[in-house]
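Researcher: Next sequence.
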Amino acid sequence: MITNDVETTSLWNHRLSDKTGEIVLKEGMPLLLEAYKRYNIKATFYFTGYIAGKFPEIVSMVLPDGHEVGCHGYTHESNQAFDVLSLKEQINHLKRAKELLESISNTKVISFRAPALRVNQYTPEALIKTGFLIDSSVAPQRIDMFLSFGSFRKLKWLTAPRTPYYTKKDDLAKKGNEGIFEIPVSSFLLPYSGTMMRISPMLSNITRSVLSLEAKWFHRPVLFLIHPNELINEEIEIETINRRAKNYVSYLLGDKLRYHIKLKNLGVKALPLFNSQLEYLHKKGFSFETTTDYYKLVKNQNHEAIS
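Model: Next structure:
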């Protein structure tokens, strides 16, 4: 599964920007869609409600090729992250974004990924109450969470299952039988993502090789995460790094250090790295599914096993 988080985040300038959203629409998304068409890939696109409302065509453009529309919350504002919201606030966020995405795409939206993968104990219930069936906000056994916000809650990733599973009612990182189907972001100490692909192509390829072997031996799917804003070039306008963290250590790790690391191989340099990932997976014989198609496949297999 190739998944894409579509938002207005400017990686170049460490802030949300409507200008970035417009460049994502005109440059980033076409590059991704062209690559997917080349390899006959059906991908899942997780849109924030904000970018969908600002640029509705960014949602419509994925539909002709059969890609899935997923939900990335309503906003990517760090002070509105799901790990700091109450159950009621999360439900309001999800309903607002889901209704908007469904009205634009004329499709049922059942797959969710939290902005910055930040969730709390209320998120599973909020997802169930707003009609979602699938989540992809957990990255099992990933050890670089200290460079991201919400790192304390993400410690649960260290013991989260590596194979897709149904979650507990109050914890997306633990197995249960409460209705939400978790499809984890593939990781092996480090995440299999566009960010890691750019920061260290060598380490990313090692991770990819391990995940490919796991897929062969244990019939475990591989899920890759990328953002179209990783493929665009912007002018650097930043003067001081906007502080989002409350304490100084989090500011140094999550704001300053993370900003400088994320600039590596950003923009035009990222595209050949990404194409090499798709070429590798294609040559290895992987089939490419949306999260909903994979969910349906698992349900059908379970039904046949019971029958």
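Model: The first strand starts at residue 2 and ends at 6. Residues 2-306 form a domain with the TIM Barrel fold (CATH 3.20.20.370).
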